[in-house]
Design brief:
Helix content: 40-55%
Shape: globular
Number of strands: 9
Distance between the termini: 37 Å
Number of helices: 12
Strand content: 15-25%
Largest sheet: 7 strands, mixed
Length: 380
């Protein structure tokens, strides 16, 4: 249970952890406000209904999140039009969005898109202000080395890009695409603004609440965000942010699945008593609670370190990726199992959370991938 505002303010214990690790009064109020908002507009029935629309999300809820909660501008420095908070506050938003299974482009546009454009906030033609306001949606492609699928050339009218960008989260409705493209002097990150007649191909995905699409551009205007020398560093930081964001989202998912399962096992009767009173079920729920606390500690610690220095947080982010992915997969599986036969049906909410967890695992790698990165970082 999170501490109250008064408990945080009156705590006599000194903080030995990074600033932002222990929730302060503002973070608690942010969580309470966001949970109330999403409880009203993002229950599982509304989420599923929104995913069946053309954009794949609710434009109404997105406007509320952008205008009233400033989700895109929250962790952006004030000199660039943001609110000046950090990734610790962003982690609160992502936890609550995971808890409510939000299908709006918080992860793809408000987090990755906005921070990718922050790589060169003063570049001519950078659409950062419109993305922070929620007026334009941005998405980021896979951040590995550029391939021949996307090439950029500089001509009399500036940079132009040609090629195909694949597996774009929210690519079907994205106004801005940040992608790595090959140039004559090496790879660079570019912000592309695909024209209206751009070919967009929706992919069949495991998680319908987070759509993906391929985009093919021809002579598309492109804004360079990095030099060839700075591309690798910028891409690594964005990859770390993507891993951290999904770790925080997975933490929120685990929290909701545990609450949902405890409630069900407390009311489902078998042999004349609630199944939650059986010792075997109690042990499984206790294991889920331990996993939740491990995930919460790992993700919040990584977010607090990333807020201070993204480069020094690399190991903590990899640990959070491994711990939170493992815990989310465990929680999703246990939620399905402990809900009995109904948990295996598509109609039950646990099934949607299970798909999101597997989709997150595919997007940023499974726990084994993150552990391999940990080994690399510590020189094993």
């Amino acid at each position: 249970m999170s501490p109250t505002s008064a408990e945080v303010a009156e705590s006599p214990w000194p903080r030995s952890e990074p600033p932002g690790l222990t929730p302060d009064a503002e973070q608690i109020q942010l969580r309470e406000s966001l949970r109330g908002l999403l409880g009203k507009y993002s229950d599982i029935d509304r989420v599923r209904a929104a995913t069946d629309t053309d954009p794949g999300y609710s434009p109404h809820l997105w406007r509320i999140l952008a205008d009233e909660m400033s989700v895109a501008a929250l962790a952006v420095p004030e000199q660039y039009g943001g609110l000046g908070y950090g990734t610790a506050e962003l982690a609160v938003v992502l936890e609550e969005c995971g808890r409510a299974l939000v299908c709006e482009p918080v992860y793809s546009s408000a987090v990755l898109g906005a921070h990718a454009l922050l790589t060169a906030p003063e570049a001519e033609g950078n659409p950062l202000p419109e993305v922070l306001a929620g007026d334009l949606l941005a998405t980021v492609s896979a951040l590995g080395p550029a391939t021949d699928d996307l090439r950029a050339t500089r001509g009399p009218q500036g940079w132009r890009a040609d090629g195909t960008v694949t597996h774009l989260i929210g690519g079907g409705s994205a106004d801005i695409v940040v992608a790595s493209a090959g140039t004559a002097d090496g790879s660079r990150l570019f912000a592309l603004r695909p024209p209206a007649d751009t070919v967009r191909t929706e992919r069949r995905v495991l998680d319908p609440t987070r759509r993906q699409a391929d985009i093919t551009v021809r002579d598309c205007p492109a804004v360079p965000l990095t030099t060839p020398e700075a591309t690798a560093t910028a891409s690594t930081r964005l990859q770390d942010l993507a891993t951290l964001a999904l770790a925080c989202e997975n933490t929120g998912i685990i929290d909701r699945l545990l609450d949902m399962t405890v409630e069900y096992t407390g009311t489902r009767q078998q042999f004349g008593r609630p199944i939650g009173s059986f010792q075997a079920v109690k042990h499984r729920l206790a294991d889920l609670l331990v996993s939740l606390e491990r995930a919460r500690s790992a993700s919040r610690y990584a977010a607090a370190l990333y807020a201070e220095d993204p480069d020094s947080a690399r190991l903590a982010v990899a640990v959070a990726g491994a711990v939170c992915t493992d815990a989310a997969v465990q929680a999703a599986g246990e939620a399905v199992q402990l809900h009995g036969g109904v948990g295996f049906t598509w109609e039950h909410a646990a099934h949607s959370y299970f798909r999101r967890v597997l989709g997150n695992e595919a997007a940023q790698g499974d726990a084994r991938t993150h552990r391999a990165r940990i080994a690399t970082l510590i020189g094993v």
